[in-house]
Design brief:
231 residues, mainly alpha, 9 helices, 68% helix, globular
Length: 231
């Protein structure tokens, strides 16, 4: 089922991208700086980065994958932050559209985690996952060691599959979480109004991910030691 989910991932990403572009264009024509328009900007960026991540899902490009994954997490988590139907959120979006320096691009992980908990999703650890990817995206010792190992394997033309299960699981989970973040209109969030008829493969994809991926990530979600990131 892992191979089935991986083989269907490009189609799911293509479907999401097409629907986000369609709905995003509708909202942009109404108001180019609205809350919904901001959400679709981030949804499209998230889907686009997932496309690139899929191209790097090999043992020889792990270090590049980690950098791109951090960019995806920041876009997806900010999308979740921007969906709150609150004045404070809309004020933050107004600053974001201006593009001024500041922290308007930073997701509010604790707020998103608390909301997900109300829906029954306990222990999603958005902040911890972002911190893990930050450790691997910046030139820390662990990131440098990751690149050393990747470069050695590439130079020696090794064909290594060790560790790919975790990378594959994380990638598939990333796609599934974007589906939830962008296509489901939960209470307390602004409606994005994606047409699920344009997304015929997301239900079977998420079912596969829940069956195959969740046990892997519950057992182990990172190779980093505790203390190298904010848990």
């Amino acid at each position: 089922m892992m191979n089935e989910a991986l083989s269907s991932a490009p189609l799911v990403i293509t479907e999401m991208t097409a629907e986000f572009l369609r709905r995003g264009a509708e909202e942009y024509r109404k108001d180019s700086t609205s809350q919904v328009t901001a959400c679709f900007h981030l949804a499209i960026r998230s889907a686009s980065l997932l496309h690139g991540m899929g191209k790097l899902l090999t043992p020889r490009t792990w270090d590049s994958l980690e950098v791109l994954t951090r960019g995806f997490l920041e876009a997806r988590d900010l999308l979740m932050t921007f969906r709150f139907d609150q004045k404070g959120t809309r004020d933050k979006i107004a600053y974001w559209f201006k593009g001024d320096s500041g922290n308007s691009w930073k997701a509010e992980h604790e707020k998103c985690e608390e909301y997900m908990a109300t829906l029954g999703h306990i222990g999603v650890r958005l902040g911890a996952k972002w911190s893990q990817m930050t450790t691997l995206a910046h030139p820390t010792f662990f990131a440098a060691w990751n690149s050393v190992a990747t470069a050695v394997d590439r130079h020696q033309a090794k064909e290594l599959d060790e560790g790919m299960q975790l990378k594959n699981a994380d990638y598939l989970a990333s796609i599934a979480t974007l589906i939830t973040a962008a296509t489901t209109d939960f209470p307390g969030l602004i409606a994005l109004g994606c047409d699920l008829n344009h997304l015929p493969n997301i239900d079977s994809f998420q079912a596969n991910v829940a069956t195959v991926v969740r046990p892997i990530l519950e057992k182990k979600d990172s190779d980093l030691p505790r203390g190298s990131y904010r848990a």
